[in-house]
Amino acid sequence: MSSMIVLGWRELAALPGLGIAAMRAKIDTGARSSALHVESHWSFVEAGAPWVGFRLRPRGSAVIEAAAPVYDERWVTDSGGHRTRRLFIRTALSLAGTEREIEINLADRRGMRFPILLGRTAVTGAFTVDPARSFLHGRLRRRAPSL
């Protein structure tokens, strides 16, 4: 277990395959799946396979539009006990200097403080979490005020 990377309960995560350089992520070992906040999404077919296009706006950044093949669609129960049907995609996660492929669902996390929630399937086998610590692998820099 000594080769496991220690994460805090919140970290910066990137989803480079989607054009997301760095976003605040909550590491939640109580959640099985991971979720990405999207403002909107739409389905389409590419080469006979189902795809999803989506739009998000990282805090302080321009709108990002991305698309990915649909990996799965299944019911997810949120922390409030509400069940919704969500689309899942597979994409690269860059976290704490490592990169791995994860599955993540597209959700409306508008009322949440973190646009990315990383559940235990995304961190199992590579990371361990210290819930008393946060941002062990860097922080977002605040922009200097304009003069």
From TrEMBL:
Organism: Lysobacter firmicutimachus
Domain of life (superkingdom): Bacteria
Name of the featured protein: RimK/LysX family protein
Pfam family of the protein (one): Zn_protease
InterPro entries in the record: Asp_endopeptidase (IPR008503), Peptidase_aspartic_dom_sf (IPR021109)
Span of domain Retropepsin-like aspartic endopeptidase: 6-137
PANTHER family named in the record: ATP-DEPENDENT ZINC PROTEASE DOMAIN-CONTAINING PROTEIN-RELATED (PTHR38037:SF1), ZN_PROTEASE DOMAIN-CONTAINING PROTEIN (PTHR38037)
Gene3D superfamilies: Acid Proteases
